[in-house]
Protein backbone atom coordinates (compact mmCIF):
# COMPACT_ATOMS: atom_id res chain seq x y z
CA UNK A 1 0.00 0.00 0.00
CA UNK A 2 1.34 3.42 -0.96
CA UNK A 3 2.30 5.85 1.76
CA UNK A 4 0.65 9.27 2.02
CA UNK A 5 3.75 10.96 0.60
CA UNK A 6 3.95 8.48 -2.31
CA UNK A 7 0.27 9.01 -3.12
CA UNK A 8 0.77 12.77 -3.08
CA UNK A 9 3.86 12.63 -5.29
CA UNK A 10 2.30 10.27 -7.83
CA UNK A 11 -0.74 12.52 -8.30
CA UNK A 12 1.41 15.64 -8.65
CA UNK A 13 3.74 13.99 -11.15
CA UNK A 14 0.76 12.86 -13.23
CA UNK A 15 -0.69 16.39 -13.18
CA UNK A 16 2.39 18.37 -14.23
CA UNK A 17 2.62 19.72 -17.76
CA UNK A 18 5.70 21.00 -19.52
CA UNK A 19 5.37 24.65 -18.47
CA UNK A 20 4.05 24.20 -14.93
CA UNK A 21 6.10 26.55 -12.78
CA UNK A 22 4.30 26.74 -9.46
CA UNK A 23 2.47 24.55 -6.95
CA UNK A 24 0.11 26.49 -4.70
CA UNK A 25 -1.26 24.86 -1.56
CA UNK A 26 -4.53 26.11 -0.06
CA UNK A 27 -3.48 25.97 3.60
CA UNK A 28 -6.25 26.28 6.18
CA UNK A 29 -4.18 24.79 8.99
CA UNK A 30 -6.57 21.91 9.61
CA UNK A 31 -5.41 18.30 9.66
CA UNK A 32 -5.76 17.67 5.93
CA UNK A 33 -3.92 20.72 4.61
CA UNK A 34 -1.34 20.44 7.42
CA UNK A 35 -0.47 16.94 6.22
CA UNK A 36 -0.33 18.20 2.64
CA UNK A 37 2.12 20.93 3.67
CA UNK A 38 4.41 18.20 4.98
CA UNK A 39 4.08 16.27 1.73
CA UNK A 40 4.74 19.42 -0.27
CA UNK A 41 7.89 20.07 1.74
CA UNK A 42 9.19 16.58 0.90
CA UNK A 43 8.24 17.01 -2.75
CA UNK A 44 10.06 20.34 -2.95
CA UNK A 45 13.30 18.69 -1.85
CA UNK A 46 13.02 16.22 -4.72
CA UNK A 47 11.96 18.87 -7.28
CA UNK A 48 13.90 22.06 -6.50
CA UNK A 49 13.18 23.68 -9.89
CA UNK A 50 9.47 24.03 -9.10
CA UNK A 51 8.28 27.01 -7.06
CA UNK A 52 6.04 26.02 -4.16
CA UNK A 53 3.99 28.28 -1.92
CA UNK A 54 1.21 27.98 0.63
CA UNK A 55 -1.65 30.48 0.77
CA UNK A 56 -3.77 30.92 3.88
CA UNK A 57 -7.09 32.76 3.52
CA UNK A 58 -8.08 34.66 6.67
CA UNK A 59 -11.90 34.80 6.69
CA UNK A 60 -12.23 36.62 10.00
CA UNK A 61 -15.19 34.47 11.05
CA UNK A 62 -13.60 33.02 14.17
CA UNK A 63 -11.97 34.67 17.17
CA UNK A 64 -9.11 32.21 16.55
CA UNK A 65 -8.52 33.31 12.95
CA UNK A 66 -5.39 35.36 13.76
CA UNK A 67 -3.93 32.44 15.70
CA UNK A 68 -4.56 30.03 12.82
CA UNK A 69 -2.82 32.37 10.39
CA UNK A 70 0.26 32.69 12.60
CA UNK A 71 0.41 28.92 13.10
CA UNK A 72 0.34 28.42 9.34
CA UNK A 73 3.12 30.97 8.94
CA UNK A 74 5.25 29.16 11.52
CA UNK A 75 4.69 25.73 9.98
CA UNK A 76 5.62 27.06 6.54
CA UNK A 77 8.85 28.49 7.92
CA UNK A 78 9.69 25.09 9.40
CA UNK A 79 8.81 23.37 6.12
CA UNK A 80 10.74 25.97 4.08
CA UNK A 81 7.67 26.68 1.97
CA UNK A 82 6.88 30.30 1.06
CA UNK A 83 3.87 31.58 3.00
CA UNK A 84 1.26 34.09 1.82
CA UNK A 85 -1.82 35.35 3.67
CA UNK A 86 -4.93 36.71 1.99
CA UNK A 87 -7.83 38.43 3.75
CA UNK A 88 -11.44 37.81 2.72
CA UNK A 89 -14.16 40.43 3.12
CA UNK A 90 -17.58 38.86 3.78
CA UNK A 91 -21.02 40.47 4.05
CA UNK A 92 -22.86 39.17 7.12
CA UNK A 93 -26.06 40.83 5.87
CA UNK A 94 -26.03 39.07 2.48
CA UNK A 95 -28.76 36.60 1.62
CA UNK A 96 -25.99 34.24 0.52
CA UNK A 97 -24.74 31.98 3.31
CA UNK A 98 -21.43 32.84 4.94
CA UNK A 99 -20.18 29.36 4.02
CA UNK A 100 -20.86 30.01 0.32
CA UNK A 101 -19.37 33.51 0.51
CA UNK A 102 -16.26 32.16 2.21
CA UNK A 103 -15.82 29.48 -0.44
CA UNK A 104 -16.15 31.96 -3.31
CA UNK A 105 -13.82 34.45 -1.66
CA UNK A 106 -11.27 31.72 -0.89
CA UNK A 107 -11.01 30.53 -4.49
CA UNK A 108 -10.96 34.09 -5.85
CA UNK A 109 -8.03 34.97 -3.56
CA UNK A 110 -6.19 31.74 -4.35
CA UNK A 111 -6.49 32.41 -8.08
CA UNK A 112 -4.31 35.52 -7.65
CA UNK A 113 -1.34 33.22 -7.06
CA UNK A 114 -1.79 31.11 -10.18
CA UNK A 115 -0.51 31.43 -13.71
CA UNK A 116 -1.26 29.29 -16.73
CA UNK A 117 -0.77 25.55 -16.07
CA UNK A 118 0.14 26.04 -12.41
CA UNK A 119 -1.37 23.60 -9.91
CA UNK A 120 -3.66 24.59 -7.05
CA UNK A 121 -3.54 21.87 -4.39
CA UNK A 122 -6.48 21.30 -2.05
CA UNK A 123 -6.64 18.61 0.62
CA UNK A 124 -10.07 17.01 0.18
CA UNK A 125 -9.97 13.28 0.92
CA UNK A 126 -12.17 10.22 0.41
CA UNK A 127 -14.46 11.08 3.32
CA UNK A 128 -15.01 14.54 1.85
CA UNK A 129 -15.90 12.92 -1.47
CA UNK A 130 -18.51 10.72 0.19
CA UNK A 131 -19.94 13.75 2.03
CA UNK A 132 -20.22 15.64 -1.27
CA UNK A 133 -22.03 12.76 -2.96
CA UNK A 134 -24.48 12.38 -0.07
CA UNK A 135 -25.21 16.10 -0.14
CA UNK A 136 -25.81 15.83 -3.89
CA UNK A 137 -28.27 13.00 -3.25
CA UNK A 138 -30.05 15.15 -0.67
CA UNK A 139 -30.45 17.91 -3.26
CA UNK A 140 -31.70 15.47 -5.89
CA UNK A 141 -28.72 16.12 -8.19
CA UNK A 142 -28.16 14.29 -11.44
CA UNK A 143 -24.95 12.65 -12.73
CA UNK A 144 -23.03 15.94 -12.82
CA UNK A 145 -23.71 16.54 -9.12
CA UNK A 146 -22.98 12.91 -8.25
CA UNK A 147 -19.67 13.18 -10.10
CA UNK A 148 -18.72 15.23 -7.03
CA UNK A 149 -15.01 16.12 -7.05
CA UNK A 150 -12.40 14.89 -9.49
CA UNK A 151 -8.75 14.36 -8.70
CA UNK A 152 -8.05 16.99 -11.37
CA UNK A 153 -10.21 19.77 -12.77
CA UNK A 154 -9.60 23.00 -14.66
CA UNK A 155 -9.37 26.20 -12.63
CA UNK A 156 -9.23 29.13 -15.02
CA UNK A 157 -5.99 28.61 -16.94
CA UNK A 158 -4.55 26.60 -14.06
CA UNK A 159 -5.41 23.13 -12.73
CA UNK A 160 -7.02 22.26 -9.39
CA UNK A 161 -5.57 19.02 -8.03
CA UNK A 162 -6.77 16.94 -5.05
CA UNK A 163 -3.92 14.50 -4.30
CA UNK A 164 -5.60 12.98 -1.20
CA UNK A 165 -8.92 12.06 -2.81
CA UNK A 166 -8.20 8.32 -2.64
CA UNK A 167 -7.17 8.45 1.06
CA UNK A 168 -9.42 8.20 4.11
CA UNK A 169 -9.17 10.81 6.83
CA UNK A 170 -7.94 8.15 9.26
CA UNK A 171 -4.90 7.57 7.03
CA UNK A 172 -4.07 11.29 7.14
CA UNK A 173 -4.52 11.40 10.89
CA UNK A 174 -2.26 8.36 11.36
CA UNK A 175 0.42 10.04 9.20
CA UNK A 176 0.14 13.29 11.19
CA UNK A 177 0.59 11.46 14.50
CA UNK A 178 3.48 9.45 13.11
CA UNK A 179 5.22 12.68 12.02
CA UNK A 180 4.28 14.46 15.28
CA UNK A 181 2.48 17.20 13.34
CA UNK A 182 0.27 19.78 14.96
CA UNK A 183 -2.83 21.29 13.37
CA UNK A 184 -5.67 23.66 14.24
CA UNK A 185 -9.27 22.69 14.89
CA UNK A 186 -12.03 24.96 13.62
CA UNK A 187 -14.66 24.97 16.36
CA UNK A 188 -17.45 25.28 13.75
CA UNK A 189 -16.53 21.81 12.41
CA UNK A 190 -18.23 20.29 15.47
CA UNK A 191 -21.58 22.00 14.89
CA UNK A 192 -23.89 19.30 13.49
CA UNK A 193 -26.48 21.90 12.52
CA UNK A 194 -24.44 22.18 9.34
CA UNK A 195 -25.31 19.36 6.94
CA UNK A 196 -21.71 18.47 6.15
CA UNK A 197 -20.79 18.24 9.83
CA UNK A 198 -23.85 16.09 10.50
CA UNK A 199 -22.71 13.67 7.80
CA UNK A 200 -19.10 13.77 9.02
CA UNK A 201 -19.82 13.06 12.67
CA UNK A 202 -22.99 11.00 12.67
CA UNK A 203 -23.64 9.38 9.30
CA UNK A 204 -20.33 8.49 7.67
CA UNK A 205 -18.84 6.78 10.76
CA UNK A 206 -21.88 4.47 10.85
CA UNK A 207 -21.64 3.78 7.11
CA UNK A 208 -17.90 3.10 7.36
CA UNK A 209 -18.41 0.72 10.26
CA UNK A 210 -20.96 -1.29 8.25
CA UNK A 211 -19.17 -0.99 4.88
CA UNK A 212 -15.44 -0.21 5.36
CA UNK A 213 -14.87 0.30 1.63
CA UNK A 214 -17.73 2.74 1.08
CA UNK A 215 -15.36 5.67 0.46
CA UNK A 216 -13.56 3.76 -2.29
CA UNK A 217 -16.92 2.74 -3.77
CA UNK A 218 -18.11 6.36 -3.70
CA UNK A 219 -14.94 7.44 -5.51
CA UNK A 220 -15.55 4.85 -8.25
CA UNK A 221 -19.18 5.94 -8.60
CA UNK A 222 -18.13 9.57 -8.86
CA UNK A 223 -15.57 8.68 -11.54
CA UNK A 224 -18.19 6.73 -13.52
CA UNK A 225 -20.62 9.66 -13.33
CA UNK A 226 -17.86 12.00 -14.45
CA UNK A 227 -17.08 9.75 -17.44
CA UNK A 228 -20.76 9.70 -18.39
CA UNK A 229 -20.83 13.49 -18.22
CA UNK A 230 -17.79 13.72 -20.47
CA UNK A 231 -19.38 11.30 -22.93
CA UNK A 232 -22.61 13.32 -23.08
CA UNK A 233 -20.66 16.52 -23.67
CA UNK A 234 -18.75 14.87 -26.53
CA UNK A 235 -21.89 13.45 -28.13
CA UNK A 236 -23.76 16.76 -27.90
CA UNK A 237 -20.83 19.04 -28.66
CA UNK A 238 -21.78 19.64 -32.29
CA UNK A 239 -25.34 20.45 -31.28
CA UNK A 240 -24.10 22.80 -28.55
CA UNK A 241 -21.81 24.63 -30.98
CA UNK A 242 -24.71 25.02 -33.42
CA UNK A 243 -26.76 27.05 -30.90
CA UNK A 244 -23.81 28.95 -29.38
CA UNK A 245 -23.14 32.42 -30.81
CA UNK A 246 -19.79 34.18 -31.01
CA UNK A 247 -20.75 36.52 -28.13
CA UNK A 248 -21.46 33.51 -25.88
CA UNK A 249 -25.23 33.87 -26.17
CA UNK A 250 -27.50 31.01 -27.25
CA UNK A 251 -29.92 31.06 -30.18
CA UNK A 252 -33.32 30.97 -28.46
CA UNK A 253 -35.36 29.71 -31.42
CA UNK A 254 -32.94 26.85 -32.11
CA UNK A 255 -33.02 25.83 -28.45
CA UNK A 256 -36.81 25.90 -28.44
CA UNK A 257 -36.93 23.33 -31.25
CA UNK A 258 -34.93 20.72 -29.32
CA UNK A 259 -36.28 18.02 -27.05
CA UNK A 260 -36.55 18.95 -23.38
CA UNK A 261 -33.76 16.55 -22.38
CA UNK A 262 -31.27 17.90 -24.94
CA UNK A 263 -32.27 21.53 -24.34
CA UNK A 264 -31.79 21.17 -20.58
CA UNK A 265 -28.44 19.49 -21.09
CA UNK A 266 -27.20 22.31 -23.33
CA UNK A 267 -28.45 24.96 -20.89
CA UNK A 268 -26.65 23.26 -18.00
CA UNK A 269 -23.44 23.18 -20.02
CA UNK A 270 -23.89 26.87 -20.83
CA UNK A 271 -24.15 27.72 -17.13
CA UNK A 272 -21.17 25.53 -16.26
CA UNK A 273 -18.91 26.99 -18.93
CA UNK A 274 -19.71 30.46 -17.61
CA UNK A 275 -18.87 29.35 -14.03
CA UNK A 276 -22.39 29.78 -12.66
CA UNK A 277 -24.13 27.27 -10.37
CA UNK A 278 -26.14 24.63 -12.18
CA UNK A 279 -29.86 25.48 -12.58
CA UNK A 280 -32.34 22.96 -11.19
CA UNK A 281 -35.12 21.29 -13.15
CA UNK A 282 -37.68 23.91 -12.11
CA UNK A 283 -35.39 26.76 -13.20
CA UNK A 284 -34.76 25.07 -16.55
CA UNK A 285 -38.50 24.84 -17.11
CA UNK A 286 -38.90 28.54 -16.33
CA UNK A 287 -36.13 29.44 -18.78
CA UNK A 288 -38.07 27.64 -21.51
CA UNK A 289 -41.57 28.89 -20.70
CA UNK A 290 -40.85 32.42 -19.45
CA UNK A 291 -37.81 33.43 -21.49
CA UNK A 292 -37.46 31.34 -24.65
CA UNK A 293 -41.22 31.20 -25.29
CA UNK A 294 -42.03 34.75 -24.15
CA UNK A 295 -43.82 36.93 -26.72
CA UNK A 296 -41.60 38.50 -29.37
CA UNK A 297 -42.16 42.04 -28.08
CA UNK A 298 -41.33 41.10 -24.48
CA UNK A 299 -38.12 41.82 -22.60
CA UNK A 300 -38.01 38.67 -20.44
CA UNK A 301 -35.74 38.36 -17.44
CA UNK A 302 -35.42 35.36 -15.13
CA UNK A 303 -33.22 35.69 -12.03
CA UNK A 304 -31.49 32.51 -10.89
CA UNK A 305 -29.27 33.18 -7.90
CA UNK A 306 -26.59 35.71 -8.89
CA UNK A 307 -27.32 35.54 -12.59
CA UNK A 308 -30.25 36.44 -14.80
CA UNK A 309 -31.24 34.86 -18.10
CA UNK A 310 -32.26 37.54 -20.61
CA UNK A 311 -33.50 37.38 -24.18
CA UNK A 312 -32.53 40.04 -26.70
CA UNK A 313 -33.00 39.83 -30.47
CA UNK A 314 -33.83 36.10 -30.35
CA UNK A 315 -30.73 35.25 -28.32
CA UNK A 316 -30.32 34.20 -24.67
CA UNK A 317 -27.76 35.94 -22.49
CA UNK A 318 -26.39 35.17 -19.04
CA UNK A 319 -26.11 38.44 -17.17
CA UNK A 320 -24.43 38.60 -13.80
CA UNK A 321 -26.48 40.59 -11.32
CA UNK A 322 -24.79 43.90 -10.62
CA UNK A 323 -25.59 47.03 -8.69
CA UNK A 324 -27.15 49.85 -10.65
CA UNK A 325 -24.97 52.94 -11.14
CA UNK A 326 -27.47 55.70 -12.06
CA UNK A 327 -26.01 58.34 -9.74
CA UNK A 328 -22.32 57.62 -10.31
CA UNK A 329 -20.29 60.29 -12.12
CA UNK A 330 -16.69 61.37 -12.24
CA UNK A 331 -14.57 64.13 -13.69
CA UNK A 332 -12.03 63.12 -16.35
CA UNK A 333 -8.56 64.49 -16.93
CA UNK A 334 -6.96 64.25 -20.37
CA UNK A 335 -4.59 61.27 -20.77
CA UNK A 336 -5.59 59.86 -17.39
CA UNK A 337 -7.54 56.61 -17.05
CA UNK A 338 -10.69 56.83 -14.91
CA UNK A 339 -11.79 53.61 -13.21
CA UNK A 340 -15.49 52.81 -13.54
CA UNK A 341 -17.51 51.18 -10.74
CA UNK A 342 -18.72 47.56 -10.58
CA UNK A 343 -15.80 46.19 -12.60
CA UNK A 344 -17.00 47.95 -15.77
CA UNK A 345 -13.46 48.85 -16.83
CA UNK A 346 -12.03 52.34 -17.34
CA UNK A 347 -12.40 55.26 -19.72
CA UNK A 348 -9.84 57.72 -21.00
CA UNK A 349 -9.66 60.72 -23.29
CA UNK A 350 -6.27 60.26 -24.92
CA UNK A 351 -4.27 62.71 -26.98
CA UNK A 352 -1.82 60.00 -28.02
CA UNK A 353 -3.85 56.86 -28.80
CA UNK A 354 -5.49 55.89 -32.08
CA UNK A 355 -7.92 53.52 -30.35
CA UNK A 356 -11.46 54.59 -29.53
CA UNK A 357 -13.96 57.16 -30.76
CA UNK A 358 -12.47 60.33 -32.33
CA UNK A 359 -13.46 63.41 -30.29
CA UNK A 360 -12.31 67.01 -30.21
CA UNK A 361 -10.37 68.33 -27.25
CA UNK A 362 -12.48 70.02 -24.57
CA UNK A 363 -12.41 73.80 -24.44
CA UNK A 364 -10.96 75.51 -21.33
CA UNK A 365 -14.43 76.45 -20.05
CA UNK A 366 -15.94 72.99 -20.56
CA UNK A 367 -16.43 70.66 -17.61
CA UNK A 368 -15.38 67.15 -18.68
CA UNK A 369 -17.04 64.23 -16.93
CA UNK A 370 -18.58 60.78 -17.37
CA UNK A 371 -21.85 59.37 -16.08
CA UNK A 372 -24.15 56.38 -16.63
CA UNK A 373 -27.71 57.63 -16.24
CA UNK A 374 -29.26 58.15 -19.72
CA UNK A 375 -32.53 59.49 -18.28
CA UNK A 376 -33.63 62.74 -19.88
CA UNK A 377 -30.56 63.02 -22.12
CA UNK A 378 -30.74 63.76 -25.84
CA UNK A 379 -27.96 62.99 -28.30
CA UNK A 380 -27.24 63.68 -31.97
CA UNK A 381 -24.94 61.01 -33.46
CA UNK A 382 -22.56 62.54 -35.98
CA UNK A 383 -23.78 60.36 -38.84
CA UNK A 384 -27.48 61.14 -38.24
CA UNK A 385 -29.63 64.03 -39.44
CA UNK A 386 -31.35 64.68 -36.16
CA UNK A 387 -31.24 64.22 -32.41
CA UNK A 388 -33.21 61.72 -30.34
CA UNK A 389 -33.66 60.67 -26.76
CA UNK A 390 -30.73 58.56 -25.64
CA UNK A 391 -33.15 55.80 -24.60
CA UNK A 392 -34.30 55.50 -28.25
CA UNK A 393 -30.74 55.61 -29.56
CA UNK A 394 -29.76 52.70 -27.30
CA UNK A 395 -32.47 50.68 -29.04
CA UNK A 396 -31.34 51.75 -32.51
CA UNK A 397 -27.72 50.85 -31.74
CA UNK A 398 -28.91 47.46 -30.47
CA UNK A 399 -27.50 47.89 -26.97
CA UNK A 400 -29.17 45.29 -24.73
CA UNK A 401 -31.42 46.76 -22.00
CA UNK A 402 -29.21 45.53 -19.14
CA UNK A 403 -26.16 47.27 -20.62
CA UNK A 404 -27.81 50.67 -21.07
CA UNK A 405 -27.28 51.68 -17.45
CA UNK A 406 -23.72 50.31 -17.61
CA UNK A 407 -22.58 52.28 -20.67
CA UNK A 408 -20.39 55.32 -19.88
CA UNK A 409 -21.58 58.64 -21.31
CA UNK A 410 -18.94 61.31 -21.95
CA UNK A 411 -20.17 64.84 -21.18
CA UNK A 412 -18.79 68.32 -21.89
CA UNK A 413 -20.72 70.60 -19.56
CA UNK A 414 -24.29 69.33 -19.91
CA UNK A 415 -24.00 68.03 -23.47
CA UNK A 416 -23.52 64.40 -24.56
CA UNK A 417 -20.20 64.04 -26.40
CA UNK A 418 -19.86 60.26 -26.87
CA UNK A 419 -21.66 57.13 -25.72
CA UNK A 420 -19.60 54.06 -24.78
CA UNK A 421 -17.96 52.70 -27.88
CA UNK A 422 -21.02 53.35 -30.07
CA UNK A 423 -20.99 56.92 -31.39
CA UNK A 424 -19.75 60.53 -31.14
CA UNK A 425 -22.22 63.40 -31.23
CA UNK A 426 -22.30 66.09 -33.91
CA UNK A 427 -20.14 69.05 -33.03
CA UNK A 428 -17.83 66.96 -30.86
CA UNK A 429 -16.02 64.74 -33.35
CA UNK A 430 -12.39 65.51 -34.10
CA UNK A 431 -9.01 64.02 -34.87
CA UNK A 432 -6.92 65.25 -31.94
CA UNK A 433 -8.25 62.98 -29.16
CA UNK A 434 -9.84 59.58 -28.65
CA UNK A 435 -12.45 58.52 -26.12
CA UNK A 436 -11.61 54.94 -25.17
CA UNK A 437 -13.66 52.54 -23.06
CA UNK A 438 -11.58 49.55 -21.94
CA UNK A 439 -13.90 46.83 -20.67
CA UNK A 440 -12.68 44.28 -18.13
CA UNK A 441 -14.82 41.55 -19.69
TrEMBL record:
Location relative to the cell: Cytoplasm
Superkingdom as given in the UniProt entry: Bacteria
GO biological process: tRNA modification
Catalytic activity: cytidine(34) in tRNA(Ile2) + L-lysine + ATP = lysidine(34) in tRNA(Ile2) + AMP + diphosphate + H(+)
Membrane-traversing stretches: none
Family: Belongs to the tRNA(Ile)-lysidine synthase family.
Native source species: Vibrio comitans NBRC 102076
Domain called Lysidine-tRNA(Ile) synthetase C-terminal: residue spans: 368-440
Gene3D superfamilies, A to Z: 1.20.59.20, HUPs (3.40.50.620)
Protein name from the UniProt record: tRNA(Ile)-lysidine synthase
E.C. number(s) listed in UniProt: 6.3.4.19
Keywords: ATP-binding, Cytoplasm, Ligase, Nucleotide-binding, tRNA processing
GO MF: ATP binding; tRNA(Ile)-lysidine synthase activity
One cellular component term from this protein's GO annotations in UniProt: cytoplasm
Broad EC category: ligase
Domain text: The N-terminal region contains the highly conserved SGGXDS motif, predicted to be a P-loop motif involved in ATP binding.
Chief place where the protein resides: cytoplasm
InterPro entries reported for this sequence: Lysidine-tRNA-synth_C, Rossmann-like_a/b/a_fold, TilS/TtcA_N, tRNA_Ile_lys_synt, tRNA_Ile_lys_synt_N, tRNA_Ile_lys_synt_subst-bd
Function according to Swiss-Prot or TrEMBL: Ligates lysine onto the cytidine present at position 34 of the AUA codon-specific tRNA(Ile) that contains the anticodon CAU, in an ATP-dependent manner. Cytidine is converted to lysidine, thus changing the amino acid specificity of the tRNA from methionine to isoleucine.
Residues annotated for ATP binding in this entry: 28-33
